[in-house]
C-alpha cells in the first residue's frame, strides 16, 4: 500500500536547514551551542510533526517530537519527548470511517528508523486509548498502559515489547510481562505472567 508522509516544522531554524538539504557539521564555533546540531548528526529539527497518510489520503498517524536529530549514515533519527497519535480506520458500506478508538503514545526518548518506518521508544512510556461514540454518549473509562520500552511498526500500526507492562482504568489494574497491541484494530495481547485486580464500589 502506498503511503504519503508530510513533515511540519515548528522551528524557523529548520527552514534554513531544509533549504540547504542538511546542516553542516563544521558550523562556526561562535554560534550558541544550543542552536546547532551535535557533531555526529547531519541536522536537527525542533517541534517537528510528521504525518503519515494512507493511499486514500486519510491520516493514519502523527508523530510529534520536541527535538529530532538526523543521522544520514544510519538513516535514523534520535528524538526527545516523542508523542504519536494513531487514527485507526475501518471500511463500512464501502465508505471510509473512523473507528471509535484513538491511541496516543508518549515517551521521553525515541529512535526513528526511516528506512523501515519503525519507532523504538524508551523511558516513561504511556499509552492511552481514547474512546469516542457517535452520537456522543456517556464517557467511557480511559485505558492507560505504562511500560519502559516499546517497538512500533508504523506501517502495520502494531507495537510490542518483552518487558513489564501495567494497564489501568478506573475499574481495574493488570500487570504482565510483554505485550502486543494492534492500534488499528484496538486489540491488546498480554504475553506472560498476567495478574490483575478489579475494583468495586463496595
TrEMBL record:
The gene is lptC. InterPro entries: LipoPS_assembly_LptC-rel, LPS_export_LptC, LptC. It comes from Aliikangiella maris. The chain crosses the membrane at residues 7-24. This is LPS export ABC transporter periplasmic protein LptC. Pfam families: LptC (PF06835). Gene3D superfamilies: Lipopolysaccharide (LPS) transport protein A like domain. Keywords: Cell inner membrane, Cell membrane, Membrane, Transmembrane, Transmembrane helix. The keyword Transmembrane helix applies.
Amino acid at each position: 500500500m502506498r503511503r504519503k508522509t508530510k513533515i511540519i516544522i515548528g522551528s524557523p531554524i529548520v527552514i534554513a536547514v531544509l533549504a540547504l538539504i542538511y546542516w553542516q557539521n563544521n558550523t562556526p564555533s561562535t554560534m550558541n551551542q544550543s542552536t546547532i546540531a551535535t557533531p555526529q548528526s547531519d541536522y536537527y529539527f525542533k517541534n517537528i510533526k510528521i504525518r503519515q497518510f494512507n493511499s486514500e489520503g486519510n491520516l493514519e498517524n502523527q508523530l510529534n517530537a520536541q527535538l529530532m536529530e538526523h543521522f544520514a549514515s544510519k538513516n535514523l533519527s534520535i528524538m526527545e519527548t516523542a508523542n504519536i497519535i494513531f487514527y485507526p480506520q475501518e471500511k463500512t458500506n464501502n465508505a471510509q470511517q473512523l473507528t471509535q478508538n484513538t491511541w496516543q503514545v508518549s515517551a521521553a526518548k525515541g529512535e526513528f528508523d526511516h528506512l523501515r518506518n519503525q519507532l523504538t521508544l524508551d523511558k516513561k512510556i504511556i499509552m492511552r486509548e481514547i474512546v469516542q461514540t457517535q452520537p456522543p454518549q456517556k464517557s467511557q473509562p480511559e485505558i492507560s498502559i505504562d511500560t519502559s520500552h516499546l517497538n512500533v511498526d508504523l506501517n502495520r500500526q502494531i507495537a510490542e515489547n518483552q518487558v513489564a507492562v501495567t494497564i489501568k482504568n478506573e475499574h481495574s489494574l493488570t500487570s504482565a510481562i510483554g505485550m502486543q497491541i494492534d492500534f488499528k484494530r484496538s486489540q491488546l495481547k498480554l504475553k506472560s505472567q498476567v495478574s490483575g485486580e478489579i475494583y468495586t464500589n463496595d
